[in-house]
Design brief:
InterPro entries: Amidase/PGRP_sf, Amidase_domain, PGRP, PGRP_domain_met/bac. It comes from Streptomyces sp. R21. One of its GO terms (molecular function) is N-acetylmuramoyl-L-alanine amidase activity. One of its GO terms (biological process) is peptidoglycan catabolic process. This protein is α/β, with parallel strands linked by helices and about 260 residues long. The chain has a single domain, classed as Peptidoglycan recognition protein-like (Lysozyme-like), CATH 3.40.80.10. It is built from five helices and eight strands. It has a six-stranded mixed β-sheet with strand order 1-4-3-5-2-8, covered by helices on one side. The protein has a two-stranded antiparallel sheet with strand order 6-7. Helix 1 crosses helix 2 and helix 3 packs across helix 5. The radius of gyration is 17 Å and the shape is globular. The termini are far apart.
């Protein structure tokens, strides 16, 4: 598949496999926006994040409603966009526009579901509106959108596919910073409550999930692909190192983080 076929129908079809597990319901429109928390132990530097104004231009219709917020982010879910890999990184803004257009058009969402997107060159883009340093409620993981952030790798990373190291490093840096705002260890686990029966867990079920998880941890999908899933341990360790956390031996595991925090 070449990039030229991505516009139009192909762009919409590219969303189906990974976006099937998103959830745009169960938000709390009356929730007051929460300001960014002050620096905490084991925080990490904020990486460079390209604002959505760089990819969202006047040619794309639709204005998102006011963002919805949770009190904090205690986990991140990693996705892939299930779109072609052989793109020029200069085309990433255009690809994101296509993804956005497919989600607000064919799927009738109010905004792009992912909080962030990362291209093959390691450039990080702001996705969903609301402020990159704030706990914006996304629409990326069915049943587990509250207190989480969605990071989408632009491309398709099924078994045997090479995952660019620049992309791996950028995802780790972004996760380290975003989880660090709440003092969360990216190698730990967190207890979240499913809000939707279409997720891997019935609504109301408390599930203990990795604080840095693949989409398939919360929804029955192959996303983020076997190749990117295989990179998650490396991403967790890199993110922990960026938070200045100690290393653990092969038989050790950090204490469960925020084990009693439950999603709304």
């Amino acid at each position: 598949m070449v990039l030229a076929v991505l516009p139009g129908l192909a762009a919409v079809l590219a969303l189906v496999l990974c976006s099937a597990g998103v959830d745009r319901t169960g938000a709390h429109p009356g929730r007051t926006p929460v300001a960014a928390r002050p620096a905490v132990a084991h925080s990490a530097p904020r990486p460079v994040i390209v604002p959505r104004s760089r990819w969202l231009d006047a040619s794309v219709p639709g204005n998102p409603p006011p963002a919805r917020y949770d009190d904090r982010v205690v986990a991140v879910f990693i996705h892939h966009t299930d779109s072609p890999n052989g793109y020029d990184c200069a085309d990433a803004p255009r690809i994101i526009r296509y993804l956005y257009s497919g989600q607000i058009g064919a799927r009738h969402w109010d905004d792009i579901g992912y909080n962030f997107l990362v291209d093959r060159c390691g450039t990080i883009y702001e996705g969903r509106a609301g402020g990159v340093d704030r706990p914006v409620t996304g629409a990326h993981t069915q049943g587990f959108n509250h207190r989480t952030a969605g990071i989408a790798a632009i491309g398709t990373f099924t078994a045997g596919t090479s995952v660019p190291q620049a992309m791996v490093d950028a995802i780790a840096a972004l996760a380290a910073w975003k989880l660090g705002l709440s003092g969360v260890d990216p190698r730990a686990s967190v207890r979240l409550v499913s809000s939707n029966n279409l997720s891997r867990y019935a609504a109301g079920t408390a599930a203990e999930l990795p604080t840095l998880a693949g989409h398939n941890a919360g929804f029955m999908t192959s996303c983020p692909g076997a190749a990117l899933t295989a990179k998650l341990p490396e991403i967790r360790e890199t993110a922990a190192r960026l938070q200045s956390r100690q290393s653990f031996g092969p038989r050790e595991h950090p204490q469960t983080a925020h084990s009693q925090l439950k999603g709304p």
